[in-house]
Design a protein that fits this description.
Elements (H helix, E strand, L loop, with lengths): L5 E5 L3 H11 L4 E6 L2 H11 L3 E4 L7 H12 L4 E6 L4 H10 L3 E4 L4 H12 L4 E2 L1 H12 L4 H4 L1 H4 L3 H11 L4 H8 L3 H15 L4 H10 L5
Parallel strand pairs: 1-2, 1-3, 3-4, 4-5, 5-6
Helix pairs in contact: 1-5, 2-3, 4-6, 9-11, 9-12, 10-11
Length: about 220
C-alpha cells in the first residue's frame, strides 16, 4: 500500500476543489476530481482511488447519489464526506448510504489528510459531535424525523426542496434559494410526491409538519 493515499475530490465548486488540492498537497495524491454526480461516477470508476472525498450537497442527488451509484458496481469503494453542513440528518443520510466518515470544511489540511489515511486503512472518522449523531441514530435515540424510513428514500436535495415547498415557497423561489432551475425543482417535487405516495403539495406540507421537519 502506498504511503500516500490516493483520492478523488468531488465538489460542485471548482474553487473549493482547488483549495483542497493545495491544502493536502504532498500529504495525499489527488488522482482526479469531479463537479457533478455523473462526472464523479465516471472518474471514480476510471481512477479507482483509495478514498473519495465527497461533498454532501450537489445537484443531481448529492453525495448520497454518488455513493449509491458507485456502490452498485464497486461496493468496496471508500468515501469520506466533506461538507459545510453539520446537520444530523445530513450526517446520518450519507453514513447510511455507505460513507466511512464525515468531516466539516473547517478542518485543516493536515487533519483532512490524516482522516483520509484512516478511512483508507478501514477506520471510521468523525468529529466528536458528528460521531454522536451517528451513535444516537444507530442506538435509536435520534428523533423519528431523522430516521424515518420514508424520509430515508429521499436524496438530500429532495429533502431541501421538500422543506422549502412545505414552508410555502413557490418553485421559482425554491430555485433561487438552491441555485437550480424551476424545472429541476418541479422534477424534485414530482419525485418526492411519487416516493412518499402523496398527491399534491398540500399533502406534502401536512406530511412534513407531522414529522416536525419545519421546526
Amino acid at each position: 500500500m502506498s504511503p500516500r493515499p490516493t483520492i478523488v475530490i468531488v465538489d460542485d465548486h471548482a474553487l473549493f476543489r482547488s483549495g483542497v488540492r493545495s491544502e493536502v498537497e504532498g500529504l495525499v495524491e489527488v488522482v482526479g476530481e469531479a463537479g457533478s454526480v455523473e462526472e464523479a461516477v465516471r472518474v471514480i470508476a476510471d481512477r479507482r482511488p483509495d478514498v473519495v472525498l465527497l461533498d454532501v450537497h450537489m445537484p443531481g442527488g448529492g453525495g448520497v447519489e454518488v455513493i449509491r451509484r458507485v456502490a452498485a458496481t464497486d461496493p468496496g469503494q471508500r468515501f469520506l464526506a466533506l461538507s459545510v453542513s453539520d446537520a444530523a440528518e445530513d450526517v446520518i443520510a450519507v453514513v447510511r448510504a455507505g460513507a466511512r466518515g464525515y468531516v466539516t470544511k473547517s478542518i485543516s489540511g493536515e487533519d483532512l489528510a490524516a482522516a483520509v489515511g484512516r478511512v483508507r486503512d478501514g477506520d471510521a472518522v468523525f468529529s466528536p459531535r458528528l460521531a454522536g449523531f451517528v451513535l444516537d441514530a444507530f442506538a435509536g435515540t435520534v428523533p423519528a424525523a431523522e430516521v424515518d424510513p420514508e424520509l430515508d428514500q429521499l436524496t438530500i436535495r429532495e429533502r431541501e426542496v421538500l422543506r422549502l415547498i412545505a414552508r410555502g415557497y413557490m418553485y421559482k423561489e425554491v430555485a433561487l434559494r438552491l441555485d437550480i432551475s424551476p424545472r429541476t425543482v418541479e422534477a424534485h417535487v414530482s419525485a418526492v410526491l411519487r416516493k412518499l405516495q402523496l398527491s399534491n403539495r398540500h399533502e406534502l406540507s401536512r406530511w412534513a409538519v407531522e414529522r416536525r421537519l419545519l421546526d
